[in-house]
Amino acid sequence: MENRTLVIAILNKAYVEQNAMLDLFLQSLGGGEDTEFLIDHVLFVAVDQRAFNRCRTLELHCYNLVTEGVDFSREVFYMSDAFNNMMWRRTLFLGDVLRRGYSFIFTDMDVMWLRNPFSQLYRDGEDLQMSSDCYYRNPFGNSFFNTGFYFVTANNKTVALFDEWYARRNNSKGMKDQDVLQKMKREGAFTRLGLKVRALETTYFSGFCQMSQDFRKVITVHANCCASMKAKLIDLRSVLEAWKVNNSNGTSNATIAWPPIKGICLHDTTNKH
Ligand SMILES: *[C@@H]1O[C@H](CO)[C@@H](O)[C@H](O)[C@H]1NC(C)=O
Ligand SMILES: *[C@@H]1O[C@H](CO)[C@@H](O)[C@H](O)[C@H]1NC(C)=O
Ligand SMILES: *[C@@H]1O[C@H](CO)[C@@H](O)[C@H](O)[C@H]1NC(C)=O
Ligand SMILES: *[C@@H]1O[C@H](CO)[C@@H](O)[C@H](O)[C@H]1NC(C)=O
Ligand SMILES: *[C@@H]1O[C@H](CO)[C@@H](O)[C@H](O)[C@H]1NC(C)=O
Is 53 strand, coil or helix? Predict the structure, then answer.
């Protein structure tokens, strides 16, 4: 966008199947409030050839992120070396985007965009605004953030953060990038770098761990607290359906409840951390 802001989503071959996550994601943007124009501001970062090809076919904005040493003619398994290399390659890439002076919202593909999030983001010197699985009232307190949706402002502090994050790759075997960032936070890296990091409220930026209780305020719904792709797809479809049905007049009703989550998603939020 004019103000050097964009949305970044990672695309892999599992997401681009017919009737899978990419379709739902685009459907949410297409049917949300003031979100359709945002499709033109999403950079889809494909991590394999099939995802890249599908992205091009749909005439989206596509970037082919090649990871050296990862052979994409083979299956890449979760937490395998190839998977980890790809994950760190992604962190390096995002740091590059910041270095070029672009701020961005990073979104996982299993986040449904029901409303335009930009109006709800804070502009009070926040460097990083992170979604969280569960929100504990204090936005600067000990929230357990989730790297599936966050906004990062491009500046020297956030560039330094991503540099440090990436530099940890060799000493973080068996950890997900989100866990590494949590660890950095616990070790005081945010304070040391002078970062203002805010946790976003689940009333607005919600997920299956903690659904927004207010249809008038909900902006995003993330299929967190849910491991299986099949379950995510089932439950996100019913979220979109409920949104369409109950928000069709533009007269959202605060008392409307979400449909029950039918997949095998976990709901015990006490168990998540
Ligand atoms: C950038 O511009 C877009 C489009 O006008 C606006 O919605 C958004 O709030 C702006 N972003 C920031 C971070 O100011
Ligand atoms: C970082 O700091 C330098 C010098 O202080 C400045 O020129 C540059 O624009 C800053 N970069 C970003 C991304 O803010
Ligand atoms: C991490 O390991 C790679 C090779 O495995 C090496 O090239 C790189 O310099 C190492 N980085 C750090 C920060 O130690
Ligand atoms: C939408 O309008 C119709 C007709 O007025 C009404 O029956 C329905 O309940 C409304 N839906 C919502 C979500 O308000
Ligand atoms: C909102 O929904 C509740 C429950 O379905 C219904 O009783 C109530 O009349 C609705 N209010 C409005 C303003 O539509």
Answer: helix
